[in-house]
Amino acid sequence: MEEAEAAERRFSDQTCFPELARFNDGVTMETFRDWAAPLLASKDPLVRDYLKSKLAELIGDDAGKAGQVVDWARDAQGAEFKVLLSGLRESDAVQRPQVAARLLEAGLDKGLPLERRAGMLSALDSQKRLTPDAMDRMAEFARDPASAEAGWAATRTLGRVMTRESENLGDASPYLDRLITIATDSPDEQIRHLAQTAPLHNSPVLDAKTTDRFARILQSEGNEDGRDAAAQVLAMSSDKERVLKLFTDSFNREQSVCVRWALFRFSARVAGRDALPVMAQMATVDPRFQPLYGTFEALYAQGNVDFIRIWNELPDQNPFGCMDRHQ
Amino acid sequence: MPRFLQGLRALGGLTLMLASCPAWSTPPAAKPALNGESCSVQGLMDQLRQGMGSSSKAYRDYLNAVLREAAVTLPSGELRAAFDRETDPAMVEQLAAALVARSEREAEKDALQAVARRALEDRDPSVRAATVRAMRRTGALEKTGDMYERLMRDGSPEVRMEAAQNLIEDNQYVYSGYHGPATDTAVNAATASTDPKVTAKILESLDTRKLGPEAGQKLLGMLGHESADVRRSAALALGGVPAAQMGPAREALVGMYRGERDAGVRKALVQGIAELGFADAVPELRKLRSVDPSMAPEIDAWIRALESGVQEWGLLLREKQRLQQVR
User: Fold this and answer.
1) Which residues cross the membrane (chain B) (predicted)?
2) Would you call A20 and B69 a contact, using CB atoms and an 8 Å cutoff?
């Protein structure tokens, strides 16, 4: 028995740090980097999470300390760089305007390598809101052909703060406005796609102008995934009739069966059971949709009303193999 | 945060204040030797016992995670013996969680049974409550038979509430409402409880999309409960039942509205009716509007939200909140 237990112990892959209590009680802003180095070198993920949260506690709501961490992050390497920015991101002080401004400056600083700027811009994603000026500068940067991964990070931050704003029942429209600009204008397909899919996380109700702008993406985006996302976003337009008409026209002209499948199923997200005539017509244009039409019709006849429920009741959510086309 | 930590946090705040008073009195702490070593039951127990009162949430979170992570490879005999011996509720919770983690990863099959037994049989209600918490957000619910119905009859209100919290969080975070047997376990426990507060707590936020027919009948029965809180929560739960049960649920809620005197229950009835019908509920809601003039604003808010044509329940709830906020 003892032997077996000794063997089990040998295989233990979780590392323990008996002195961590002393670290925790004694560490200060001044000693953090020096003391944390051996812990980071251990590559233990629990310890790394601890260091992030501990740094956030040390920063507290102190803008000066937060600014210090931004400075450290300008030249810190590897795991330390990530811990510094994650700790800052979690801290209370990051919500202070001067700290957010400093992060944004670093993120847009041409003197820093792009991957570092991406980290700085990502650390802004815990903001409760962004100022109109910050939104403009991030959106402009994301449309810059040279912005690469940092432009991608700026776009993701705009999307994440928009989602948070929506969750708090705030106004998502200033963020959405910038994101649609990126979704339309960025020369980088990945950045455009990120902006096109950002509203899928908060499903804003679209007004007439936003509906117009997303309709243009549906009609002109060269990337199928972008048109697919546009269909899903447009399903939340307040102008149901217009979107059903748009979906019908687009379906007829659309060559990709995957985008056709998006237009077909998201018609149900537009208008529920009332979309069935439109879906029936699509199934006449493309007979591959006949059995799918039958399924939707039956699910509505059974009394289902919620689109999510309908979607989850489908016997096959991937009838054309579209979900795995990128693998 | 677990209740046992709240008092400790207050104390921790105090020591932090005292420690930071005269800077000259505390020389900078010496850098601890941060060597990682393989974990042992005794070492972890010592670290936990010392550290769980720490004022640093980051450190407490680390300690909470590390024993669960190490659990699979710790010697099982030692771990079980430590669990059987331990009487401090906070430590029992840690050790129980480690045993549950072992059982979840199938390192040990009967570990969970030992935990369940202690949740039901320990003499100290704080230990029973702590053991129940240790099973939260795990798959324990599927392997513990009628434990939750029995916990509903526990003499301690704390234990009953902790059990209710498990049923809520397991259904929400482990199964996302998609596992019928887990939904039924929650409804069976809620209806077996003689504590109206506990019944209401379980039912008010329960996702019932996969509710079984028998549990559905029990839920309908709760509409006649003498406690308004229970009737309110049952009405909310009935809003989400599967298509096959929607007809009887709608009839029950509509039929009950006129005779119901409690304003909170009436609000819940209206919400349940809205969820069961989406836009189709509008004519019914118009009819109910004259029954009680004080309910008219609430019903109007629902009608406006439903008429927006949004096809997903979560988004409809948000639209209703948003529309009420704008007014």
Assistant:
1) none
2) no
